[in-house]
Each structure stands twice: as structure tokens, then as C-alpha cells.
Amino acid sequence: MLKGRQRIIVLGGGSGGLVAATQLGRRLGREHEVVLVDRSPDHVYMPSLLFLMVGQRRPEDITRKLKRLERRDVTVVQSEVDGIDPDRQEVRLRDRTLAYDHLVVSLGMQPAPDQIPGFAEGADHAWEMGAALRLQRKLGAFQGGRVVIGVPPGPYRCPPAPYETQYLLHNYFVERGIRDRVEMEFFTRDPAPRGPAHDPSVWMDAQARQRGIAQHYSYFVEAIDPDERVVHGRYGLDLAYDLLFMIPPHQPAQALVDSRMADSLAGVRVDYDTLATRWDNVYAIGDCADMPASKAGVVAHQEAEVVAHNIDVAITGRGDPTTLRLHTM
Fold first, then answer.
1. Which end of the chain is more exposed for a tag (fewer CB within 10 A), N or C?
2. In a 3-state reduction of DSSP, which class is residue 196?
């Protein structure tokens, strides 16, 4: 049990940060100080951006004010994170510096479209609110042609989503009565799936082919030509398109790069059992944690529960520490 009032700072209001802050506020908020920092006033439920893309959701359906966490004894600070000094136990924000006793880093991954030449001019995606709304308008005006859906090299948020995108767009074109005028293709850097029919990757491949969507495996993008509307792949493999949906490359948040906390393109190295980093009382969860698990909301949620529990145990002495036991595909 630790003596004195403790300040726990959670960086990032996505799925992991939201769960961590909520649970810490409920457990500790009245006796200690729980602070959530995010640059946006809103939490956006990102898994629903694909449904926004096809007009099945509105922005207000998938957005909630982070200030609502204050009823859970969480102080919400809206500011940009400029840097972290884990040796001095400080977080440097755009407008102030905050000291902490415990830090939960849940800053996610940031899109980095410039890593692929031509991406910004030639591709659309639904990995951010503004991009999803632009694509929604573009899809509404689309009357037929070749639609290509693709996956970039390197890590990215929500690995299952490209497969869901295929099924959603197929159904969207069917409902509009133009599916017979749309040719659909999908590419990924992953190898072709092998195994029994019930294996998830084999099943998803079969589902796509049943919908008439051609699959290209072990395909590595090198550049996009927005004028010719061609995706250039390694070894001279090109794919022409009329509409290109491609997940942008991702990289760790700039604050983690600038603070030299990101150990790789996959994020901050953590202990796989506890999400602890190499710095005392600093944890990384969600997409910014370098973990052998999907960078998905369900993973961030479970990681946040473990970290919140263990911080509570460390501060109050109540109960025993726990370890991560992921339940995911």
C-alpha cells in the first residue's frame, strides 16, 4: 500500500484509455486523482467508422463527450501530448506539464499515409472520422467500376476490419442495385491462408470468394499512381482501380517517438503479462503497446482492465495482482 494521495494519468481517450480511466475513477477517484488526457473532447467508437462509411451510422451515433467521465471521478484534460519524461515522471502537454505517480499510455497508432507515395491523392479509407465521411460521399456518387481494397505493410489498427470492409461494400453495392457493375478485388501482405475450413483466415477467404471478390495474397504496395489509378506492387505487380480503399500505414504517436519511448514500429515494449514498461509505474496498453496480439479495441479493453486492477492493488494494498489472459481471435 502506498501512502499519500496518488495521481494516475491516462493518456488517450480511445477504447483502452476510456476503460482504464473509468475503472480507476471508480476504484480510486475519491481518495486519489485520476486524470485522462486527450486532444479531442470526444470519444469516437472507431469500429463503427466502417458503418459510417456506408451510411448505416451518423457521427453523433458513435461519439460521446469525454467530460462524461467526470461523473466517475475522472478529471478530463483536453490537450495535445507533446512529450513524456518517465525519469522525471512528467507529461508535457501543449499548455502545461503534469507530474504523475502512475502513468497509463494509451495513445494508439497514428496514420502515416506519406509512407506510401501517392497514397494521399489516390486512396480513401475509413480509419478516421473525416476520411470516413469523405468516402461516404464518394461512394454515394459511385456508379460502377473496379473497387480495390488493400492492406499496407507494417502494423495497423484493427486487423480484421479489411475483411469486414469487403463484406460491407459488397452488401452496399447489392442494396444499391449496382453490384453487377462493380468488380471487387482485395490485396494483403499476408500469405494465402491454409488449413481446415473452420480456421478464421480460411473461412474469411471463402466468404470473400463467395461474394465474387478476387483475393491477392503476399502483395506488398510500393506506390500509388493517382493519375493512372494504379497500385504498384513489388515485383511489378500492378492493380488498376476506379475506387481504392486502402488502410493507411500506421506508426506510433509522435509524442512516443519524440520521447524515445517507442521501441519499434509496433510501439512501446511491454511485459506481456502486466503491460508494464521498463520505466517504474508506466504501462502501455492498446495499439501503442508492442504486443503479439491484434491492435484492436477488444484487446485494449482487456489490457486496460488488468492495468487498472494492478494499479489499484499497488496503491491500496487490496487484493492480489493479476496477469493478462486475452480472449480474442
1. N
2. coil
Number of H helices, E strands in the chain: 8, 21
3-class SS of residue 87: coil
Among 207, 231, 246, give the residue marking a domain's end.
Answer: 246
Helix-helix angle 297-316:15-28, to 10 degrees = 20
Q: How many domains does the chain have?
A: 2
What's the rounded Cα separation, in Å, for the pair 14 and 177? 36
Q: How far apart are CA 295 and CA 149, in angstroms?
A: 19
User: Could you report the per-residue pLDDT of 25-68, keeping only the tens digit for each?
Assistant: 999 978 999 999 999 999 999 989 999 999 999 999 999 999 99
Same domain, 122 and 227: yes
User: How do the residues of the chain divide into helix, strand and coil, expressed in percent and rounded to 5?
Assistant: 35, 25, 40
As a residue count, the chain comes to 329
User: Last residue of some domain: 185, 215, 246?
Assistant: 246
Q: What is the pLDDT of residue 329?
A: 58
